[in-house]
Amino acid sequence: PETIHRLDYTPPAWLVPEIRLEFELGTELTKVKSTMKVERNPDGSHDQTMHLCGDNIAVMSLSVDGKPAEGWTMSGANLLLPLPGDAHEVTIETHLHPATNSQLMGLYASNGMLCTQCEAEGFRRITFFPDRPDVLSRYTVHMSGPKDAFPILLSNGDMTASGEGEDGTHWAEWTDPWPKPSYLFALVAGELVARKEVFTTMNGRKVDLAVYVRPGDEERTEHAMRSLVNSMKWDEETFGREYDLDTFNIVAVSDFNMGAMENKGLNIFNTRYILADPDTATDGDFDAVEGVVGHEYFHNWSGNRVTCRDWFQLSLKEGFTVLRDQMFSAAMGSEPVKRIEDVRILRAAQFPEDSGPLAHPIRPDSYQEISNFYTATVYNKGAEVIRMMHTMAGPEAFRKGSDLYFDRHDGEAATCEDFVKAMEDGAGLDLTAFRLWYEQAGTPKVTVHSEFSDGTLTLTVKQKVPATPGQPHKKPMPIPLKIALFDRATGSHSGEHTLMVDKAEQVFTFDGFAEAPVLSLNRGFSAPIQLESEVSDADIKFLAAKDDDAFARYEALQQLLTRELLGAVEHGPDEARRAAIAEALAAVLDDDGIDDLMRGELMMLPTISFLIELSAPADPMAIHASRERLKAYLGQRLHDRLTALHDRASAVAYSLEADARGARKVKTQALILLSAADEAETARRAEAQYRAADNMTDRQGALAVMASLDAPARDDLLADFHGRYEGNALVIDKWFAIQASSLRPDVLDAVEALAKHPDFTMKNPNRVRSLYMTVAGNPIAFHDETGRGYRMIADLVLALDPLNPQTAARFVPWLGRWRKIEPKRAAMMRAELERMAKEPSLSKDVREQVTKSID
Ligand code: HT7
Ligand code: ZN
């Protein structure tokens, strides 16, 4: 496959200022007529030929200025159209078959309705077009179809006309006044019902809001609507961004490759991120709905009004929008808890990517298939990079930078460089060296060595950015490292410092201490680095108890836990350290000053994926065993506190308020710690929690704990859960995932049986992910010593690839982590990659991931 390089960018030779699309809708056959006003780009090459992308479509008719076109040719799937003048009208007809579109890109059928997904390169599956984000057009969309099958007809912008046709058909016309790239085009047709509300913007304009779902689901849209209204208000208050159409529609569809899509004025969502009520959605699901609704809405400015020049700039919209959704969720809930969750995701998903064969900078230099670059690096590390600018500038100056960015580039297709320049000019920062974060892949490793004499503390900070594919030699990165120096006697500090670390080795001194202070480093996770600190266990324990930065307090406990978990793999448990951990956790359980949402975070052990990262080449089973051993130890040592906590939290009535959510969180965390210590008692408590539950958080939490136990009630509860929620796709997804996450030795047998269950289908990405992504993330299953877990994932990729290459490709990176794993398993993982590579008909998506993962 062809490799596309960032530096090869050239502006388009032809522009399309206006397009009219006419759809005759049908599930089996949809006819599309596109009429484009095209004009030569004064800033482009003077190519006489217009290049129109296509994918899996054929030209049914083609005319230029009303006459049949002459001299056009096909170059592979693309159309080459010679045009003699500077401006023309081009009309093309294509035929689509939505019912058989299993890739879920372009126009497809889902659960009886028709919908589109065009980012990144799906529009070319609808009509021939210069399908690149720097070609911006005004769209008018006319659609007609049978009224009984498609009573609701939606597209971008506002509806400008509608009417009845013949033979039970009807039509609607939608006009979007804002020029947009083709990836933001959307259309939805089907039987839908809506929750509606009117939002008044900061300038008093009324906007009609609607959340469309399938009949029967409308009761589960209240939280999505609330989240949308909150997002609109928050973006006005925090970034000064107002909505710019009279209509804002959201539609939930059950077959979707990703989470959601920010099409202008018509966001399309995976049902998973819209539907939520207490009986079917956990607190985590509620949070995810809020975050994703916010994310897609925020794209209206960071992505739509200012879009990307080319796909290498993806982080321009995604990194910035992730930061915006993180800030929004923090503002709606608990800031420190949200920060902890975001860092946990970064460490579990992005750090492994950054140190593996698929590592790439947040602005990649090349790709074969752009869908493979919707990664944790582009999204989450991209957000961290902009967060560092926020840290360096402070909130007011950052806002000046973002205002300037939006003003300067409104209506444009911009680059990451444009964003950085606007931040420099608006926020008054010098980001010359900081631009390295866009260029270099890899997580910097930072070590801090401290010495104390005569009242002076000397910190020697060293950093090393590891080599990554294509980048063997790295320069030191500019790292804003927030620190505080604690007085041992008083337990307080005299203020935070932000050290700008930008050399391979640097020395910082601090005077005026009577005794060596305790170091609190990278507070708030001010930089996305791996910190190797020499801080003693005693000092970490001090911070775990006393640090006033909630994130740093969490971090101190995690560090202590990590030391013990990895140390025990090498040379067995360290009694003194285990006791220190138990004491620190006991303090967490006893501390009335901590709310339960934070307590729940502090009770969680580091993820196996993060521990593998730190101990490569890792024996995943040894890490898992070490984790279970520590859980058992803590479960025993803290037994009375944990059961008391479980009892206390069980008495709290259901509500969506923070206290009640916190109670549910600690309830299940207590069960998790207890489960490794006393199976029988935990099974009794889990069963009681399940049977008493009046909400999904408690029910799922109890069932997930139960799924790993060998308890008599286990199978009954699993059957009860399935029976209770039969027909509710999102909850049945949970039923599959709960079983695939089991830590029992028979988990792979169970997964094989589940793959044959009548509710399992390869056609629905949520269902496939619920079973197999859970297997890939379950160390007991995936790293089974026979290699069966690896084979299962490779078999899945090969079976899914012909149907849905994008979703199939997302499983490959799990096998690509072979270098991090001990040699015997690594060889089996690599062998599966080699087996996949031999398959001649692999998609471009899977082939790119497999080839890069083997090297
Ligand atoms: N911007 C959206 C990306 C997206 C996507 C990309 C490839 C294939 C399918 C997709 N669906 C949505 C999602 C977002 O970041 O908001
Ligand atoms: Zn996004």
Structure overview:
- This protein has 855 residues and is α+β, with helices and mostly antiparallel strands.
- The chain has four domains: 4-298, tricorn interacting facor f3 domain (Immunoglobulin-like, Sandwich); 312-439, Neutral Protease, domain 2 (Orthogonal Bundle); 445-527, Sandwich (Immunoglobulin-like), CATH 2.60.40; 725-855, Peptidase M1, alanyl aminopeptidase, C-terminal domain (Zincin-like fold, Alpha Horseshoe), CATH 1.25.50.10.
- 42% of the residues lie in helices and 21% in strands.
- The protein has an eight-stranded mixed beta sheet, with no helix packed on it. It has a five-stranded mixed beta sheet with strand order 17-18-19-21-20, covered by helices on one side. Strands 10-11-16-13 form a four-stranded antiparallel beta sheet, with no helix packed on it.
- It is globular, with a radius of gyration of 28 Å.
- The structure holds (3S)-3-amino-4-(1H-indol-3-yl)butanoic acid and zinc ion.
- Residues 117, 119-120, 257-258, 260-262, 295-296, 299, 318, 371, 374, 806 line the site of (3S)-3-amino-4-(1H-indol-3-yl)butanoic acid (HT7).
Ligand inventory reads:
(3S)-3-amino-4-(1H-indol-3-yl)butanoic acid, zinc ion
What's the end-to-end separation, in Å?
Answer: 17 Å
The biggest sheet amounts to:
8 strands, mixed
Low-confidence stretches: none
**Fraction in beta strands:** 15-25%
Largest sheet strand order:
6-5-9-3-2-12-15-14
- The general outline is globular
Top CATH class of the largest domain: Mainly Beta
The radius of gyration is: 28 Å
Total strand segments? 31
| Secondary structural class | alpha+beta
CATH architecture of the largest domain: Sandwich
